[in-house]
Each structure stands twice: as C-alpha cells, then as structure tokens.
C-alpha cells in the first residue's frame, strides 16, 4: 500500500525572507502618522496575522476609535512604508536551497502569506519564485487570513493535496494556530522572532532556526518524494 505523498505550505515573511522587522517598522510609521503611539514590541507580537485583524487588535489595545476609514488609512500607509524598505529584504539563509531541494525531489510546495500581492510580489522576486509555476496564495485571495486556516486550505487545494498530509512551515504562533485549524502538521522557524516554546505551545511539532537548519534535517520531516 503506497503512503500518501507529503507536501509543504510555507509562510513568507520571517519564514522564507528576512522581512519581519521591515513590517514592524512600517506599521510603526503608519501608526505614528495616525498619531498612535505604541511600543515596538507590541507591534512585533502581532506580525503574521492579517492586516485587518492586526489593526483591529492594535486600536482595541489603545482604546481608540476603530473606523473603517482609519483602518483603510493604516493599511495603505503600512503598505507604502513597507515598499519603501523592500530593497533591503533578503531571503533567509537556505530558503532558496530548501525550495530548490523540494522541487528537485518532486515534493509539492506552495506559499501562503497574510500579505497582499502588492507587498508580497517584490519579495517573492528576491526568492526567484515564478508566479506562473508556483502556487502562491495571498490575503487578497481568501476571505480570512491567519490565524484562520483559509490561506493554507486554499494553497493545499490549488496544489491538489490533502491537508492531512501537508506540513505548514511558519515563524509565528499565528501560522501554527492556522495550521492546526487546517489539520496540517506545523513546523516552526525561529527566524521571525518567536521562541521555541511559544511555537511548540501553538502546535509546532518541530522547530528549526531557519530554512537552512530545516534543510539540514529534512529527513526528520519526510521532505522527500
């Protein structure tokens, strides 16, 4: 009896590219433009969830008025500030090699990010991802983003794989929560700033430093055809 083939569903920011702190600074700039003062560490703890949920939670914490217009302005200002920093973003160590290994081994993989295509596209280019050949799901394409499972469910469906045989690779607790809700296994990476215990409590069954560390131990996670 042939066992079902495994597959990998990757988050983008902090997982494949070193962009978490660019997002943090972009949100800080957007918030200050709205006259909202918030500690950097509070912003960092929310990176990885959808921008809409992010702004709702931030505004709730500051007890300020939450209006659709204000949320739209914040998201627009964040996108502009993030794009101004995009040139400094680089793939994390081993990211390109890990994706190339999976491709060569015939292991299906996709990218599912809470970012919208306008901010994700330049970053995907640095990874050498061909949008015509690789399944990429962004916030624009689903109803809800992380910690809801929609991004990973959609990515699995487009790959033509079962979520029960898929593994989500992410750097935040929001990725791990979404992977559990999608009924996928979860692998956590420390490259986004979350700690090992946090990722494990949220559902990660393996935690690695970065894509290079994961590639070294790929046999532990059945990354083969």
UniProtKB/TrEMBL annotation:
<dbReference type="GO" id="GO:0005829">
    <property type="term" value="C:cytosol"/>
</dbReference>
<dbReference type="GO" id="GO:0006281">
    <property type="term" value="P:DNA repair"/>
</dbReference>
<dbReference type="GO" id="GO:0008967">
    <property type="term" value="F:phosphoglycolate phosphatase activity"/>
</dbReference>
<dbReference type="InterPro" id="IPR023198">
    <property type="entry name" value="PGP-like_dom2"/>
</dbReference>
<dbReference type="InterPro" id="IPR006439">
    <property type="entry name" value="HAD-SF_hydro_IA"/>
</dbReference>
<dbReference type="InterPro" id="IPR023214">
    <property type="entry name" value="HAD_sf"/>
</dbReference>
<protein>
    <submittedName>
        <fullName>Haloacid dehalogenase superfamily, subfamily IA, variant 1 with third motif having Dx(3-4)D or Dx(3-4)E</fullName>
    </submittedName>
</protein>
<dbReference type="Pfam" id="PF00702">
    <property type="entry name" value="Hydrolase"/>
</dbReference>
<dbReference type="InterPro" id="IPR036412">
    <property type="entry name" value="HAD-like_sf"/>
</dbReference>
<dbReference type="InterPro" id="IPR050155">
    <property type="entry name" value="HAD-like_hydrolase_sf"/>
</dbReference>
């Amino acid at each position: 009896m042939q066992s079902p083939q495994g597959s990998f569903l990757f988050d983008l920011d902090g997982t494949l590219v070193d962009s978490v702190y660019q997002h943090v600074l972009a949100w800080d700039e957007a918030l200050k433009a709205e006259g909202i003062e918030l500690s950097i560490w509070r912003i960092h703890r929310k990176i990885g969830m959808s921008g809409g949920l992010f702004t709702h939670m931030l505004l709730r914490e500051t007890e300020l008025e939450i209006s659709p217009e204000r949320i739209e302005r914040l998201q627009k200002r964040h996108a502009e500030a993030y794009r101004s920093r995009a040139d400094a973003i680089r793939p994390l160590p081993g990211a390109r090699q890990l994706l190339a290994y999976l491709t060569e081994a015939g292991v299906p993989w996709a990218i599912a990010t809470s970012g919208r295509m306008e901010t994700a596209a330049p970053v995907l280019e640095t990874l050498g991802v061909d949008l015509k050949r690789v399944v990429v799901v962004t916030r624009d394409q689903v109803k809800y983003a992380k910690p809801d499972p929609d991004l990973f469910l959609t990515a699995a469906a487009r790959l033509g794989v079962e979520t029960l045989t898929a593994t989500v690779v992410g750097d935040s607790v929001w990725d791990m929560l979404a992977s559990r809700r999608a009924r996928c296994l979860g692998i956590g990476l420390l490259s986004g700033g979350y700690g090992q215990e946090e990722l494990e409590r949220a559902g990660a069954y393996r935690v690695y430093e970065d894509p290079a560390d994961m590639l070294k131990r790929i046999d532990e996670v059945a990354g083969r055809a």
